[in-house]
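Q: Please design a sequence for this.
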């Protein structure tokens, strides 16, 4: 008889990466429950095709009683924690939201997990906790040196988890992925902004001269990496998930414009983001050598699939953009 798979509780499962993880976990046969507040960034429409294949609990991580009630009901064996305030620019405009959810919310979740004796707690952190690096790469042992309120809050959560591992032998693993792109990303993030603006022949805002470098990782590869670590990663460890695909922002815009056959004259350089990290570069050999994961989707193919998905879900995109125009005015200044 096939082995019964453990029950998963996925926080932030209605978000961009979390929803892809839920799709993959459900396809593998895991019993999945999602806990999500459905903030402006959360949307169950991302999981419309999988409706009925997972349980959903609407709850704010910062609401201790609600979180406890979800644990009582679900009795998860594994918690996979994606939920967070995830946008650097928003954290610069309002730093408290990131601290509340990413630090306090994470602590409430780990306390609930500890009380209900979960077997594994998989924390999704970010490469941004390392700060930026002009040359060379970040390893899992690189000291944390965050630059934005968002990445500082993520780093604080990592340290809290590390302390729980040491103090309570809390069974956690920390994952630090690089910049994700792919279908269903909320259109405040760079890739969907470029695609949307190019679709509409609107000016595409690019910070400074577009020379900041990010390591672009296709969302399905990232979610598969999280599943791999969830299943076989060593407790107490940290795993980077990168792609080796380093691109300047201007290269990313040029690639999208080339595929969409749009002119470069759409590019508009705007004032730089305060504290803007210049370059991230992740060494992910630990994940590759220990657990055999490597990225499968190359950049050109990933960007093509992403553009196709946004065209397919254009109504969804338009609905989100309605609420973004005044926000764009605040963050993109000439
Ligand atoms: N997107 C990236 O490029 C990237 C890269 C590295 C790491 N990460 C990390 O991966 C995780 C997922 O990122 P994403 O891009 O999918 O984010 P997202 O913004 O698309 O989704 C976040 C989800 O969390 C939910 N949420 C937010 N606050 C909550 C709260 N207080 N209680 C319950 N639910 C809440 C939202 O409703 C949403 O569904 C985050 O922890 C992020 O820091 C993201």
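A: Design:
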């Amino acid at each position: 008889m096939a082995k019964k798979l453990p029950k998963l509780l996925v926080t932030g499962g209605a978000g961009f990466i979390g929803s892809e993880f839920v799709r993959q976990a459900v396809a593998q046969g895991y019993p999945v429950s999602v806990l999500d507040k459905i903030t402006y960034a959360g949307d169950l429409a991302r999981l419309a095709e999988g409706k009925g294949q997972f349980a959903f609990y609407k709850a704010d991580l910062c609401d201790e009683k609600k979180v406890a009630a979800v644990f009582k009901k679900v009795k998860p064996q594994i918690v996979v924690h994606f939920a967070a305030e995830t946008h650097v620019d928003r954290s610069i405009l309002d730093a408290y939201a990131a601290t509340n959810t990413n630090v306090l919310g994470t602590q409430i979740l780990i306390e609930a997990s500890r009380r209900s004796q979960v077997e594994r707690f998989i924390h999704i952190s970010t490469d941004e906790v390392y700060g930026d690096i002009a040359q060379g790469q970040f390893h899992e042992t690189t000291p944390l040196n965050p630059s934005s309120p968002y990445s500082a809050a993520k780093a604080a959560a990592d340290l809290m988890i590390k302390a729980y591992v040491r103090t309570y032998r809390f069974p956690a693993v920390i994952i630090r992925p690089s910049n994700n792109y792919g279908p269903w990303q909320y259109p405040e993030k760079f890739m969907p902004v470029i695609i949307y603006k190019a679709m509409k022949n609107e000016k595409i805002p690019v910070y400074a001269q577009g020379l900041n470098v990010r390591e672009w990782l296709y969302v399905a590869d990232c979610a598969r990496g999280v599943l791999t670590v969830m299943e076989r990663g060593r407790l107490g460890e940290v795993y980077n998930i990168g792609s080796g695909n380093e691109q300047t922002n201007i290269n990313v815009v040029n690639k999208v414009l080339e595929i969409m056959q749009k002119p470069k004259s759409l590019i508009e350089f705007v004032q730089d983001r305060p504290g803007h990290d210049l370059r991230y570069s992740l060494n992910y050999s630990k994940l590759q050598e220990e657990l055999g994961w490597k990225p499968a989707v190359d950049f050109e193919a990933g960007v093509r699939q992403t553009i196709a998905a946004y065209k397919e879900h254009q109504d969804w995109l338009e609905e989100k953009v309605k609420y973004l125009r005044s926000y764009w005015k605040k963050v993109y200044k000439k």
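Q: Thanks. Anything notable?
A: Residues 218 and 297 are 7 Å apart (CA to CA). The mean pLDDT is 96.
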